[in-house]
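Narrative of activities, Objective 1.

The group set out to show that a structural description can be obtained from nothing but a protein's sequence at a throughput compatible with the screening campaign. Below is one input-output pair from the validation batch, recorded exactly as produced.
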Amino acid sequence: MIRRPTDTWRAHVADFAAPYPEPFVAAAERVLTSFEAEVRRFGSPSDDEVLAAIRRVVEGLNAVDGTHDHDFDTVEREELCEFIDDVLTEAGIDLDGLAARRGIKRFELTDEWRDW
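Output recorded for this entry:
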């Protein structure tokens, strides 16, 4: 099982080690859970289906960013992108191939829609 960034954020909330408002963490968690469920339902998805899932998770996280007096910081952004990559890779998606077919680098797969 892939560890979600929100697991770490929740641990910090419990320890009062970082300013992660629980409603912010819960909202991000809902977006990530929905993304995981969508990817689990994939059979042999087309590039368009994979990109649509990436777009939905990114736009969902865009909606969370800046709420409850918290913005995604650099580390959180990296954790979120890594999580998206890990979920898709675990599902057998060839992200290097997808990126190459789009004429971009793998780390740019979220860039088209990402505001955070």
